[in-house]
Write a structure and sequence with these properties.
With 75 residues, this protein is an alpha+beta fold. Helices cover 20% and strands 23% of the residues. The protein has a three-stranded antiparallel β-sheet with strand order 4-1-5, covered by helices on one side. A two-stranded antiparallel ribbon has the order 2-3. The protein is globular. The model has no long low-confidence stretch (mean pLDDT 90). The protein binds iron/sulfur cluster (SF4).
Length: 75
């Protein structure tokens, strides 16, 4: 049996996010609702990240003014 590593995800902490929308400008996978809150494709709090989205995801983590974003990896 081979070990599989799940794709990293961009996690949104909804208790911190106040819908400033910076992350939605950096990541195409995030839509924006009418109040500026990010909408994760497929729903939920975790946006699966493709390899070509990692740089933008790290930038979003660094720029989120409320420290509401983190990159999670699971194996
Ligand atoms: S940048 Fe941060 S505070 Fe702004 S919408 Fe994204 S997660 Fe929320």
């Amino acid at each position: 049996m081979s070990a599989r590593t799940a794709a990293p995800t961009l996690h949104i902490d909804w208790t911190k996010c106040r819908g400033r929308g910076v992350c939605t400008e950096l990541l195409a996978g995030l839509g924006r609702d009418p109040w500026g809150y990010p909408l994760v494709r497929g729903g939920g709090s975790d946006l699966p990240l493709r390899g070509d989205e990692m740089t933008a995801a790290r930038e979003a983590v660094d720029l989120c003014p409320l420290l509401a974003l983190s990159i999670r990896t699971r194996s």
